[in-house]
Amino acid sequence: MAKRQGGRLYDGWLYHLVVDPALARVRRLVRDQVRRGSALIDMGCGTGALLFSLADWCSELVGVESSGRMWAYGSRRAKALGLNEMRFVHGDATQLDTYPDGSFDYASATMVFHEMEAKQRLPLLEEMRRLARTLIIVDYRVPLPAGLSGIFIPLIEGLAGRDHYRHFRSFIDLGGLPALLMRQGLPVQKEIQLHGSSLHLLRVG
Question: Quick check: pTM over 0.85?
Answer without folding.
Answer: yes
